[in-house]
Batch of 2 targets.
Target 1
Amino acid sequence: MAIAASAVKGWIAEVCPDVPLSRIATQAGMSRITLHQQLVRGNVPEKTVVAVARSLGLSPLEALAGFEPYTDLRPSRPDSREVLAFVDWPELLKAIASVYRGEPIAESDLGDLVFPDSSRVWVDAIDSGNLRKAVEEEAGLASSNVAGALRTTLKVSLAVSFARNAGTPLASAFVVSDLLTPTEAGWDADERVQALLGRSPSDLLRLVGVRAGAAEKHVRRIRQFEVDLG
Amino acid sequence: MISTDYVALSVALVLGVFTAMRTPSVLRGHNVPLWIAHALIVVCLLLAVTPVYVVIDGMAGGSNVANLVSHLLFNLVFLFGCRQVAQSVVRPDLVHRICWRPGFALMVATSLLVAGCFVLADTPVTSMGLNLYRDDAWVVAYKAASFVYPAYCSAVLVPMLVREARSTGFPLIHGAAKGFLALGFALMIPLPAIHLLEFAAEGARAWVDVFLYTAILLVSAGPLLAFISRIRRSQGKIKLAA
């Protein structure tokens, strides 16, 4: 689901007229040849638009929202279902213990937003039952391919499909894909801390159970490789 | 001995060491199918060394039956080995495709085809790799058919292994193991076609050895890394996360 090169060419001409392509590419941290090829081939990846927008001091989200198929992209705080999926389970357990004991917590205690297995954790959090099936049908992918995609950082096209089908903010899909920072997506600076403090102890303990179960499955997969081949 | 004998012997020795390393675990009942796959590939490789082949085939009647046995054993190596690989990444669907329909049926069918081509080919005198008879179309067909099931199993596993090797959240050593497996299995896929190319260009047969021995070494590196990872974990030297 890349962006049409003609639209990106028009946008570049509008935001930085008379600037040579080579300089735009250098400022965006990519090679001139790569940018040129993307513009010639007809499709430009979203990360190129994000990189160029950042290098020009523009909002990457607003830049993306100027193109099909992201015209409905708006800055948005994360959905309550998804926000704590952006914390890996060891940090989450520590943070919940701190909340339970009334000790202070900070965003910096909660680790990176994108972590191993984060794609699957996010989809699990927003899936009310038929989400995977709906995305498989929409993307025309087999369930094994979608499961495989969830083991890496999600491609933006799939993340967007998951968000649209789940009814969660599109901006969060770009955070899951590691394309936008939370601030660029429109999150508050301490979004995850607010979510932790806003939940009841019962809710948090239920979440511990869910995440510990998922982590246990992941650890079992790691061990299985050694059990069968080691 | 000729140069390919030394290559086969060297690879057999390496795989022999890997098999020996696994023997204590096997005696405790751990990973028997994988040990069988290792042991069988060592037998196949030793049968690719001329002096060994001549002696064994001589004992079997001197009509190249040892070559047929080695090709049929190679299918069993893939049956046992690929099943373990698919199981290790928790993919019962791939286990099914390799060990049941359509995989098992394909293995039986191609094994019968291999045996049929061998019978139809006229190979009365012991000849390492049937090299004396490479002009016989039945021999070329026999060789190509021998690699159909291994190529099928490899084609089933490669896309999954590539995805797995790129997955996040696994120890680096697991990613490397899956990468080696993917690369090795990928080299197995064109082998039947390379054999068939012999009909057009005789030189194609040299590429079979290059692909085959490289593939065997790369594929065997995968379980070796998993083995090292298991030992290191049991000694507390490896973390679960990447």
Target 2
Amino acid sequence: MQQISKSYRNGEETTPVLKDLDLEVAKGEMVMIMGPSGSGKTTLMNSIGGVEMPDQGSITLDGLSVTSLTSKQLNQYRREKVGMVFQFYNLIPTLTARENVMLALEGRRLPRREVRERAQGQLELVGLGDRTERFPQELSAGEQQRVALARALVKGPALVLADEPTGNLDEASESLVLDLLIKVKKEIGTTFVVVSHNPRLKGHMDRCYELRHGRLSAI
Amino acid sequence: MSLTARMGLRRLKNRKMSVLLSSFIIAWAMAMMVAGVWSAQVMEVSSAEYLDDNGMPDLFVTLSEGVPEGDVSLSSFASHQLRLRAIGRASIEGANTSVVLIGVPDAGGGLNILTLQEGSMYSASDECVLVAGSRTADALDVTVNGTTVHLAVTGTVSSPEFLTNELSVGSIVPGSGGLTVVYLPLTSLQAVLGPEVNDILLEMADGMSRAEAEASLASLPVSSMTYREDHQTTVLFGMGADKFSTMLPAISLVFVLIGLISIFITMYRLVLGDSRNIGVLMSIGVERRSIALAYLAFGAVVLLVGAIMGTLLGYAFTAGVSQMALDMMGGIPVVLPSDPMPTLTALSFTALAVMAATIVPIVIVLRRSVNQALSYAPRAKVRVIGRKGTSLASSLGLRNLFREPVRAVVVLLAVALSIGAAGSWVFMVDSAMTYLDDQMDAREWDVSVTFNAPLDREDAVMSLTQAHVNKVLPFTSLAGALSSGGRSAGTVMLASPNITEIRGFDFEEGSFQAGGAVLAKKLAEELDVGPGDKVTFSLGGREVDLIVSGTINDMQSNAAYTDDLAVMDLVGEGKCQGAFVILDGPGAADAYVSVISEDPLVGEVKLGEEEVSALRSLFEGSISMLYGFFALNLLIALAMAVLATVISTSERDMEFASMASMGVPRAFIWRSLAVEVGAQASIAALMAIPFAFLLAKQFALLMEEAVFFIPVVLSISALATVVVLGWLFIWPSILWPIRWVRRLDIVRTLRERSGR
């Protein structure tokens, strides 16, 4: 990310959120961004994830200039390059765990059987091989977050963005999910950018930054 | 304005579509109710005004033979008009056509006023005017009693006795059965037929009873007496008014029910979705009553918008329905009486319904404790639908349709009910056409012949028996009154010694007995008689007692049939008015008709097949309005489906935003929505079948009271029409969620719904 700036307008008032922000994350790294509420963490994540565009600056992932993509290309970018994990999981309640994971492969033109097998494999990786036919409401919070993680990972993304992945979990579930993130990083070499308030995550990260007044500082 | 009321109104900003759709459904129901009550008034006022202004006679009398004008003494009546009537034949537009000639005196006593539609009135003895709707020509060479009369046509007119010429004679609607009706100076016709009259129009004196009127006519050879109340024009007007005053309010009740459901589910969704806010308000001590008032704003706005739309729609419906109906009845002028009662009545009824549908869901949510309200979270009750081999988009669509099973069922019922209400018209139209065909199939004859004057029965048979003739069945058709136990009704009595060979009888009750009478079911109900009861047929002061032997369903609801020769003899002992002819084969009909048409004794000749097609086209024309209702009512089905889709998709904004954030292709979302809407359309269209059938049966019962009997049958074509058109009408409801998803702000939704 180079020279990223973003501000929001509320009537006449303009509130800068990100100011000339630079960040480079190496492949396979796990980077954590901390910061108080309203500091712009989610804006930063959304910008990297191609959900919203910065006002200025450029974002490049695997040599692909995200900030110059069209709306259609951005959709493809979200579908193929990044996986997102949210605090409240954002699973589709009318799809089973496996179907939620399969949903991430929609539009890839893969054989149905392969899609099923890959979804099954991801769910086994996150320890939910025996819960594949459960609907989200039949799963615990920790299990739902693991399904969300499987959904993010199943497409083999270049980058996983996790927004408060443990923010809604109890301590036991939190450590399960955290162990899982570390396991995936080690075994698959997935790159992670994690946004969290949780100081317990800090020790497991390669680098940590604090976002304050629109700028990142290493901590 | 209180803070809570302000809060309630602000919440409505996000429910504009729901408010609009609910208001539309309510407005439709209200408009139907207004139109039903008001258009009945319009019909009554317009028809009464027309009949009074145009000198509708109190009594129409036809004589079986001509009598000299001087022999007719009618001093006990307020006014009268003596006419001469004859049936001739003329070549019009290349076709040999029957022509009804009516000689009218210059001073008509203000009775049966001829209203000029086009051209000018006749002024010379060789000029005439035609009843509007007749086959037209500039001039006619009419052959009557072997003499050819040349008449110049100066214009077209309408009159109370023949509102339009496109309708069929002998059926329940007034007209000439496609005959050309000609009015000409009485003296011109008398110059051809002799100085006699055979047709009388009468205005009864104040307080004159029917018995007195009939006694005054006892010296005349009356063959038909029709009182104003029994005349086809009056009956038609009455039926029109009755039809609208019973049918439309009944249908409106179905739409009120659909409106209730739409408001209920919208309101329930609104207050349930606001459960946490309500919990917060309760936790800070706001009274439940104040909270309820805030949400009542929804009902109030729906009612306000619905009432405004309903009043305007009600006016438009009334004006449109009345205009259409009165156009069909000969284009009589529409008089819209200014009466606020229909609108106020409909408004009160809808207001009650709206407020009830609004209050009930509020009460359900407000009965919860503060904790229950605060901790409420919507949870989908997911059912495993479509697993093996079903695509992900299909599974998602089907499960979303049933994610709230109770609501899904209620919505499906409401949509099905609205398709059913619309489809009931199709069932009725289809049944009516089938019934018409059945009635026509009951006809056993090929050609019907009416003589210019009653003829000896044996002579009639002899003169009509020619090559290819299988059988000649003499008949007499008399329009008189049938009475029993103090009740009386106008009736058309068909008498023939061969009555069972003229038509088939499908008995509702009883059977055919020699010398007995078979009555149309509605006529029997009006007289409160059944098999074994005695009835009296009276005509021109003469009476014949008959025993009812059976009842039948008959399109002509005032029809009666007998083989009693005493009835036939009312036109002269041993005589008949005409005969039905059964030929060896249908191929011989044209040749036979052209031969007997030359006979000077023969007046009118009709081919059975032509009669069927004339009736069929008449029926098709008059029921095209029902198809119009079908299409209009399907709009309500669509509105209900859109409302359900709006509610269902708007509560899934987070799911759509999540899918968008994952880069799930829009085509996938469209497919799942298509499956959801398609399944809803399919299930609702299938569920609509029993509704359509049952509602058609109910409406047919109401129609039987007002118009005529239609046995409702379940036919494949009607069923397919309802299902396919119902299904197609639901599909446009997919446009709203597609538009909504396209416009969905992903970032805002993700942030707002996850509290970021």
